[in-house]
Amino acid sequence: MEINNNQLLRFTTAGSVDDGKSTLIGRLLFDSKSIFEDQLDSVSKTSEKKGHDGVDLALFTDGLKDEREQGITIDVAYRYFTTPKRKFIIADTPGHIEYTRNMVTGASTANAAVILIDARHGVIEQTKRHSFIASLLNIPHLIVCINKMDLVDFSEAVYNDIVNQFEEFSSKLLMKDVRFIPISALLGDNVVNRSKNMDWYQEGTLLSTLETLHISSDINKIDARFPVQTVLRPQSEAYRDYRGYAGRIASGIYRVGDEVAVLPSGFNSTIKSINAGEQEVEEAYAPMSVSMTLEDDIDISRGNMIVKKNNQPEMEQEFDVMLCWLNSDTAKPRAKYTIMHTSNEERAIIKEVVYKMDINSFERDNEDNDLGMNDIARVKLRTTRRLAIDSYRDSRNTGSIILIDENTNETVAAGMIV
Amino acid sequence: MSKYYLNYLDELESEAIYILREVWAQFENPVILFSGGKDSILVTHLAKKAFYPSKIPFALMHVDTGHNFPETIKFRDDLIEKLGVKLIVGSVQESIDQGRVAEEKGKNATRNALQITTLLDAIEGNKVDCAIGGGRRDEEKARAKERFFSHRDDFGQWDPKNQRPELWNLLNGKYFEGEHFRAFPISNWTEMDVWNYIKRENISIPSLYFAHEREVVYRSHSWIPVSEYLKLEEGEKVETKKIRFRTLGDITITGGIESEADTLDKIAEEVAAMRKTERGDRSDDKRSETAMEDRKKQGYF
Description:
heterodimer; A: 418 residues; alpha+beta; Rossmann fold; Elongation Factor Tu (Ef-tu), domain 3; eight-stranded antiparallel sheet; six-stranded mixed sheet; B: 301 residues; alpha/beta; four-stranded antiparallel sheet; 10 strands; 31% helix; globular
């Protein structure tokens, strides 16, 4: 295979045991010839042991011992496959309400979410929950697969009805690109190969949709943000005064000669050089890992952000975030947490819970202020120092934060800046 | 007009460099676990890019089972010299001599599992707080659940059901005294990605990866190289075959495949057509369905 311009697409699948999610992933991998013989052997043996007819495609996705024993997904599992058009990373996440945190995790870096609906049951609470999380995490593309069409006689009327149900409830959510595909994961209809049973559906299969989604605009290329991870200071004679600011461009495009500002100090300078590895380049863009040098000698360290002089993020010490609580210890009122935002680290307190979201009904609850595992709430945060923030809608990388409990070192919450 | 999106190899490279720099920024004393295999060579290559024009700021740590391919050791020593980095060796033989571990017995005895003790001793003894590995999620089903930053308790153990959630690019590397981390910058690479990248960057790798004539014995569906440690069983015979290795590990358990692929181009072509995973020839993974998960929980790579 030649090295080429193929892109990488990350997508998440959320679903429960019964809606055929594991079968769908198994089918995608199997029909795109991404399953190896020894994996097939091992799954065939297990299928036989469990008394299934033929190969149970769902078994390809079970990872840990407990998961295989209980037949459920507990943690996010990553799967990989490649077609002649793209490389794909699947973040396979469990769909039960108690695993909301895993769904959020899988969704955080996804270009697309695949949501499964059982054609026999139509839109259920779980569908709404998954769609809400996809919209909250601002996943750019949503693909709704109406599965088990074989069990409803491949009926166009059933399909249309479910599409309408989905359109109705999702009008309250923020979504840019939604597509619907009638499939049978079990039989393979419209997954990789076009269905022979549904002539009334003439659009793409799931795989061809994934292969052609326009994803190069998924990252913000307008607002240039460069969080400094570390400063490179080579200990050699040739580079005596060299200071390279290393990081991964969070959004936007940088060119040599650009006038920049360094936050939080606010000092201005000009980009002198940009390096991608050993190679010097004229311009660089998100999500490239690069290092930059500036014309002026300014004190810059990890946690600082280099931005364009004429396009700067807000510097705030108090701001609202949509917070997902990820830990079994509930949030302590006015407790201090470590906050991580880009490469920056400060301390933060939750000043106020504005409201909690019921993720099944999309209703706000203004009374209940306790934040427990899997809760989603709008809160006011106050940090020890000002942070250079963007709204999550504008930039995933500079609009997201996590909170760490200082007593346990665990990541207890993930937040999207409003 | 220039394009403003990355192809998949550039994106994987950028992600790995980000993680390596995050390790450097968040930990006091990180090392790269270096086996001499292609994945750890790749991680080392990426580290060179991540910190250029500085030198790689990590030592390389080799857990040496004592059962090595001589080619691997030569390659390791040449690379260390070229990069000017420090080498730390944890020796399984020493662990045996000190009575920390006992050799397995029987026909398929290997030192694979013994590495866990040596690795954890080397991490503790050198006050390493983050060991960077070349593990990939596509290798094995337990590895599919790994985080980029993976926490180990003060016994070096992995608790797969109680891992820290990892969102966006925010990596939490906080730990208490005695605990440590493993970091996996090439988590999202597949075997094919690794080969395509090695080819693109023209990274040098041990000759063992290229097809060559070698004396081997057919055992458990693969060609095991003849070495001073190999005990011939009844009915087994030594043959000379043109083979190459898809992974490099302990010489006693690393099986080769018959192959004519003697250039990077041919290897990439061959891997693309492969119908078996690369660990399919590793007898350490064949012991049970959960062999890798069980070892990983105890502190394996």
